[in-house]
Design brief:
Mean pLDDT: 90
CATH architecture of the largest domain: 3-Layer(aba) Sandwich
Number of domains: 2
Largest sheet: 7 strands, parallel
Radius of gyration: 22 Å
CATH topology of the largest domain: Rossmann fold
Number of strands: 13
Length: about 400
Amino acid sequence: MSAEHFEIAGGESNVRQKDRLRVGVYVFFCRGGIARYTLELLRELSARRELWVELVCESAIDLPHQLDYSVWPGLHSLGHRSALLRRLRFLAGQWVNPLRLCHRAASVGYQIAHFGDFNHVTYPLWARAVRTNGRKIVATVHDVTRAKCLVNRWYEDSQLRRFYRDADALFVHSRAQAAELVTWAAVDPQRVHVVPMGGFDYGRPSADKQQLRRRHGIPDGKLAGLFFGNLRDDKNLDLLLSALVSARRDVHLVVAGREGARGHKPLDYYRGLCHDLSVHQCVTFISGYLSDVQVADLFTMCDFVVLPYSSRFTSQSGVIGVAAQYRRPVLASATVTFRELLSDHDIGLLMEPDNVQSLATGLSRMVRLVQAAYPFRFDDYLRANSWHVNAEITSRVYARLSGTGDGSA
């Protein structure tokens, strides 16, 4: 069956109203933080009476049970059990999927194409087609630059800059990212809009906190710190393990997530480092894919979350949104985005990036605050950084671009 025949109809009120502004939201990857972010935003956008929204994705995406928007899962699939075939499918998708979006946009009549992620490597191939019939192009920019290149660094950076400059609007999650777009890509600052990243709710845990602690072998009398997410070198887990040496009497660390991609240190490296530092009895590793219930369990049983990321990290992290949702304070490196967020909201502590001593001091301070039941202001954070606020700003930008409202944002 051709991709054109795949379609899932969401909420009827959203589909039937043909006079609404028609928006197609494109997601290249079917899993991970960007996909989850997009689904949360779609839930809010679809509730707006002036919009008809459709998700453009591949069939493997894990969708909510209740849909109030249309879904077109006609993108070329990226998944396969073979690592080699996954890489080949990924490369093929760079060409095939933007063109499938263009075809779908023309057949349905999107007035706005919103890229949750985008294939800048092949941008010259589809740049003109995506703009047919005066269609406006917007994108959510989670990472302004790219740490890795697929073919050639100069070429890819030039196409990424070109995509940014051509876009009618760009959404970022911090003022620092907005400034980076202006300086790195010469983007018109009037086209850049800062939107919050809301909380991520993974549902109810499978048991209460004490039961979960016993299930995972966390000793009584210790606070549990959580390091959550894919193991990438720029997340500085090795520095966190080194800092744990001075905090091992008070802290048990839970490391949960998948091994990093090729080129990053494997899980066995960190296990070996724990033994070298004599902290192996203070660390629990939970590797592999985690279900929603498992994520809820982790954030419920732990007392705080640690993000010791390198200063090279310039994007926002969805982990903070999960931590706030489950009322867990964060100990985070003072990267440009984390410093901005935690300076505005009292939900944790900042430490100097890439510095073991600062991390050790931060662990000690966090232990004291948690033991003293310090009143972190999670509710204030979640009100200011809600998906509703994000969708409100996003829809005003849509309105301005389409000429259906003043679009002030």
